[in-house]
Amino acid sequence: MDSQPSCVVVTGFGPFRQHLVNSSWEAVKELSKLGLNSNKNVELRILQLPVDYREVKQKVIRIWEDLKPQLVVHIGMDTSAKVIILEQCAKNRSYQDADIRGFRPARGECLPDGPEVIVSEVSMKAVRKRFAVEGVEVIFSRDAGRYVCDYTYYLSLHHGNGYAALIHVPRLSLWFSARLLGKALQVIIQDMLEELRKPELEAS
């Protein structure tokens, strides 16, 4: 078996609108301190993405071409959420909201002639069923919100042949510290890696 460490890239987003602290990036930094401790053969790489459609497009392509990860997990902040949300799929069209530079994608779409929906290879329902971290509830969703997170996810699923995930986290609060969110991400992402390994194990 190949002993080269494989790479998992986890991204968070920078500030946007009135949100000067983005909980997604704070949670990713905490995850980086914790590591993906159950698997020494996985190298964790983290990256902050700007809430900027054009820059995100370039960075997603670079991630997949340069790092060749086995999985990319994008973390976004849902300002109204009280739970962690595992997004099963991404949509190609209806991106009407402007990014931090006031830009909107042409015709509101990610990829001209791209499929309407791309679904992740990770079963979010299965991951949610197994999740257990005290003080945190996890749900799964099929609508990632048609903003820069959803746009990023679509491009990543396209370039990564489905080996991407999007997780929405709540804002930081008394109930949701960066540390707690980081711990929850560690558990979820380790489980996603196990989920993706299952077909390999069954075949061997």
From TrEMBL:
SUPFAM superfamilies: Pyrrolidone carboxyl peptidase (pyroglutamate aminopeptidase). Gene3D superfamilies: Peptidase C15, pyroglutamyl peptidase I-like (3.40.630.20). One of its GO terms (biological process) is proteolysis. Transmembrane segments: none annotated. One of its GO terms (cellular component) is cytosol. Keywords: Cytoplasm, Hydrolase, Protease, Thiol protease. This is Pyroglutamyl-peptidase I like.
